[in-house]
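Researcher: Quick test of sequence recovery. Tokens follow.
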């Protein structure tokens, strides 16, 4: 049970830090990793 509480507290702190340090919404660079198969890349 204490693990659930620790996890909840961790995410609460993380959300607070993100709100303080990041302007939302903001641009985000997405990175895609695909196999080096030309057919997969074409998809």
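Model:
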């Amino acid at each position: 049970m204490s693990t659930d509480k620790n996890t909840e507290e961790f995410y609460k702190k993380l959300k607070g830090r993100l709100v303080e340090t990041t302007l939302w919404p903001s641009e985000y660079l997405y990175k895609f990793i695909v196999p080096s198969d030309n057919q997969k890349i074409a998809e």
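Helices lie at 2-21, 38-42.
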